[in-house]
Amino acid sequence: RAQDEDYVKRNLRNRMNGSSQVLVLIGEKTKNLFRFVRWEMELALDLGLPIIAANLNGSRQQDASCPPIIRDKCVVHVPFKMKAIKHALANWPSEFHRLSNAQRGDGARSYGESTYRDLGL
């Protein structure tokens, strides 16, 4: 049934409705995956869920690999490193929800050098 697009989307929607945040792995080919990945990111944006983009290439900020659907959106970008991901999972949702709609319109987010220094990265 995993090949049945309606079935997959219905189950993903149910899971995302109960989610407090979304973690998306961003690789070289992610921006070209339309069938489910783009749909999931669009749904996360529509639901107002905080999105963490973990860059497989190690980038600490938005780069050319970022899919257009979340490019320049209020998404925090971190490298694909356990400490950085754990930090974002623990902190980004509350940071995101404290932002006004105007502040969310300011685009992509990333953590500064001091955060990475504190994480030992």
Provide an overview of this structure.
The longest helix is centred in the last third of the chain and has 17 residues, at 82-98. Strands 1-2-3-4 form a four-stranded parallel beta sheet. It contains five helices and four strands. The protein starts with a helix and ends with a helix. Strand 1, helix 2 and strand 2 form a beta-alpha-beta unit. The chain has one domain. With 121 residues, the protein is an alpha/beta fold. The chain has helices at 5-17, 34-47, 82-98, 101-104, 113-118, and strands at residues 22-26, 51-55, 76-79, 109-110.
Shape: globular
**What count of helical segments does DSSP give?**
5
Q: Helix- and strand-based class?
A: alpha/beta
Strand content: 5-15%
Radius of gyration: 14 Å
The rounded distance between the terminal residues' Cα atoms is 42 Å
Q: In which range does the helix fraction lie?
A: 40-55%
- Report mean pLDDT, rounded to a whole number: 91
What is the domain tally? Answer: 1
The largest beta-sheet arranges its strands as 1-2-3-4
What profile does the largest beta sheet have? Answer: 4 strands, parallel
Count every beta strand, where a strand is a DSSP E run of 2 or more residues: 4
Low-pLDDT ranges: none
Order of helices and strands: HEHEEHHEH
